[in-house]
Fold this protein.
Amino acid sequence: MSEPTRLSKRVIELLGCSRSEAEQYITGGWVSVDGQVIEAPQFKVTDQRIELHPQASLEPVQPVTLLLHAPAHASGDDLQRLLTGDSHWADDPYSQRILHGHFMRQQQSLPLQEGASGLVVLSQDWRAQRKLREDGHRLEQEYLVEVRGEMAANGLDRLKKGLQHKGLQFPPCKASWQSEQRLRFALKNPHLQQLRQMCAALGLTIVSMKRIRVGGVPMAKLPLGQWRYLGDKERF
């Protein structure tokens, strides 16, 4: 058995390429060790079978944006733990070759209401990050809210016109009943307690909340705890 050596060094020996090219092939997910893709150039190998994918390219890995159906009360660490190949939605219509690098340096934008589950946007793409950072206050967010209690008179009209309560002035929002105990809200730039405060002002207690859309991007059928890629033609 040979002495353990860096995968990048073995790739250089096999391909006759430069060190930077070897590392690009590896981090791009084009190199496998005994049939398993390895994306770490420092990975130690001995006499295993090293193969380069026939469609290998030296193009840099493109940044991606991920859409995650987050559980309620999930922290940043919880979200990161959910970003694995195993939690990728099997029916992702925009599926691509999954790389470990897709889960690195992901930044979250437009946080959920406190205690809510639902659509979380995570991105490595500076263009998407800038869009959400600079234009996020203009993007409509849609929530489904399970409540208990009896709504105060003219509650929906008050929400649509801009609810006032105990010195607080809330901006107008769209609201409608989806069922006896479920409200749909569409609102822009809500602060983290806004839905709870608005519902409380109308005599309602929130049981659960779920964000189902950010701008023009819906969560749709994405299962709880799973993620999918943002499609090339999807726009917030």
